[in-house]
Sequence to fold (115 residues):
Amino acid sequence: KDEFKPLIDNPVKLEGILRMGNREFEKRFGHTALYWRGKNIIQRNAVIALGNLGREDSVDILIGILEHPSPIVRGHVPWALSKIGVDSLDKVLSKTLKREKDERVIKEIKLVLDK
Fold:
């Protein structure tokens, strides 16, 4: 039945969601309920999903997301990287901690570093 037909013709990979700009987000999701939630929330969810999947091939993109303009998105990266089990995690997060300004993100980094 048409009621159960997916609204999105080509499913987007999680990494693609993290790389997505505003224009592409609106084009892909503007006609769905995902658009109402906003790009940052969807990207945060992609970070969480990658952490739960534990895929080592997503480490590089997650490290790049530590530079994301939204603290909502980058604040979940330390947890996701810790779930995956990155060897150089302490080094990466210590470097990030030196430049991070958002208190919530700082708290998340410290929680992972203190484990």
User: Anything to note?
Assistant: The chain has a mean pLDDT of 91.
